[in-house]
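Incident log, support desk, overnight shift.

02:14 A customer reports that sequence design results differ from what the structure should imply. Their input is reproduced verbatim below. On-call engineer (initials T.W.) acknowledged and began investigating.
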């Protein structure tokens, strides 16, 4: 996969994830659900706990990738904080920015190597 399909895919998925989060947030208050953590009234929602485990596990893996990819320590820390705050849309934005740095003939290999997008 070369640069432009990567850019389109990252932009599309970031938009879809962001829309879904905003739509869900307007329909259901996550903080009210979190206040009821362990309450039997939310036991029928096993996906709630699975989603939290999924997010934190994914976050650690993405943070390791960012730590490897970024050259400056402050960029590493800022991006990791940003990714923690924005979750999946933040990851999509990070990959979109990295894909935009690629030359037209570059692709996944260069996207995932340390200095591939230089």
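02:41 Re-run completed on a clean worker. Output:
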């Amino acid at each position: 996969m070369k640069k432009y399909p990567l850019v389109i895919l990252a932009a599309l998925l970031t938009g879809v994830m962001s829309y879904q989060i905003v739509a869900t947030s307007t329909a259901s208050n996550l903080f009210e659900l979190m206040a009821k953590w362990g309450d039997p009234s939310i036991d029928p929602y096993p996906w709630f706990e699975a989603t939290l485990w999924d997010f934190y596990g994914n976050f650690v893996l993405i943070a390791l990738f960012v730590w490897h990819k970024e050259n400056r320590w402050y960029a590493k820390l800022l991006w990791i904080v940003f990714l923690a705050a924005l979750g999946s849309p933040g990851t999509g934005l990070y990959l979109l920015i990295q894909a935009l740095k690629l030359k037209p003939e570059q692709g996944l290999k260069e996207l995932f190597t340390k200095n591939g997008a230089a």
